[in-house]
């Protein structure tokens, strides 16, 4: 669960270094659905709530290796270091990771899971924006990783139905070779940015886009309880011909198709590795932060592998891999205290001065309803 502004201290530091871009593994999924397999403990694999149900970590690893496959969805290899994370998990356990629809939105993850329910191709795990995650908790299987108690209560469901995994700030990235420097949100309405301003996704479906509209709303006098000024700004941006209805990707950025992008700081910062003229700014007076939600599909065809994936993501190894990419892993504070967060990662975390806005679940749900009712008309 994301914390409100007055308790957003945990998000005061976020990496802005470039992402490591590595290819995800994509192979044919296994033919057998193992969700109903019964463990020695008498618990079905698809209902296991901790590694103890498998007889401990060794039992979980053995069961996951026997399944041999893990289906993930909407995990671009250059997003949050998922390319390196997938490779590390696969190499460590000898499990094939089938990565589907890497550029899909959070809502598309849910739709695909529903369409493929009962199939061996269905997603085993989810990585979702807050609004979509909270609207679909009935699809998640409760599970507590070994480091569960090390995760602050504000960033997890008490039963482990979902757990935040990494976070960042909304930023504006721009190609300084193609557009004037962006110093404030209002700059984007200027004629110099005609047909150049892209938002990462549809805010009714994608967490990055939702947070982008919230950041813009704050810059226009709105608040976390009033996102309407953000929608109105995009209406003006669209009427001016400056809004570009193209989902940005590394390819569109590097080709010059999307020279201005509103997106998470870590995603925008990754482009600095391949494009020397790409610059990133986090509007300091309108800082918006957010975490993504990690969950297991309750109908996962590879339930043991799904749970082992969670254990890996929240282990010191997994959290450090996240940190290398420009995101802030959820266990960062405790890892800094106990010395397990890599020094290079800790040293790269910049300070964002001033208040940081993070919507509560209730605020997100209210804003999502407003967007559902008003966004399409504003940008059509």
Automatic annotation (TrEMBL):
PANTHER family: ABC TRANSPORTER SUBSTRATE-BINDING PROTEIN, THIAMINE-BINDING PERIPLASMIC PROTEIN-RELATED
Name used for this protein in its record: ABC transporter substrate-binding protein
Gene3D superfamilies per record: Periplasmic binding protein-like II
A Pfam family this chain is assigned to: SBP_bac_6
SUPFAM superfamilies tied to this protein: Periplasmic binding protein-like II
Tagged with keyword Cell membrane: no
Organism: Mycolicibacterium cyprinidarum
Superkingdom of origin organism: Bacteria
């Amino acid at each position: 669960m994301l914390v409100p502004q007055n308790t957003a201290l945990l998000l005061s530091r976020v990496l802005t270094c470039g992402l490591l871009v590595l290819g995800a593994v994509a192979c044919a999924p296994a033919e057998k659905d193992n969700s109903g397999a019964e463990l020695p403990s008498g618990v079905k694999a698809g209902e296991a709530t901790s590694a103890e149900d498998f007889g401990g970590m060794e039992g979980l690893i053995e069961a996951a290796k026997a399944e041999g496959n893990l289906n993930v969805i909407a995990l671009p290899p250059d997003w949050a270091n998922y390319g390196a994370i997938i490779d590390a998990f696969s190499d460590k356990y000898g499990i094939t990771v089938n990565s589907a629809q890497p550029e899909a939105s959070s809502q598309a993850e849910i739709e695909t899971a529903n369409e493929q329910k009962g199939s061996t191709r269905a997603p085993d795990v989810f990585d979702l924006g807050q609004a979509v995650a909270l609207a679909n908790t009935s699809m998640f299987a409760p599970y507590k990783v070994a480091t569960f108690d090390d995760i602050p209560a504000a960033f997890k469901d008490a039963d482990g139905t979902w757990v935040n995994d990494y976070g960042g700030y909304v930023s504006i990235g721009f190609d300084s070779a193609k557009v004037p420097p962006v110093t404030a949100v209002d700059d984007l309405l200027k004629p110099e940015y005609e047909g150049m301003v892209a938002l990462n996704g549809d805010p009714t479906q994608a967490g990055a886009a939702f947070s982008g509209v919230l950041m813009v709303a704050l810059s226009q006098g709105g608040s976390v309880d009033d996102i309407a000024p953000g929608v109105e700004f995009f209406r003006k941006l669209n009427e001016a011909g400056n809004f570009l209805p193209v989902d940005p990707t590394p390819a569109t950025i590097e080709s010059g198709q999307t020279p201005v992008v509103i997106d998470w700081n870590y995603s925008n910062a990754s482009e600095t590795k391949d494009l020397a003229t790409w610059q990133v700014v986090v509007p300091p007076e309108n800082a918006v932060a957010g975490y993504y939600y990690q969950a297991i599909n309750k109908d996962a065809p590879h339930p043991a592998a799904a749970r082992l994936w969670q254990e890996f993501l929240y282990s010191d190894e997994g959290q450090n891999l996240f940190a290398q990419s420009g995101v802030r892993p959820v266990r960062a504070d405790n890892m800094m205290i106990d010395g397990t967060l890599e020094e290079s990662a800790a040293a790269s975390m910049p300070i964002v001065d001033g208040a940081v806005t993070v919507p509560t679940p209730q605020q997100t749900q209210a804003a999502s309803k407003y967007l559902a009712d008003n966004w399409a008309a504003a940008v059509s």
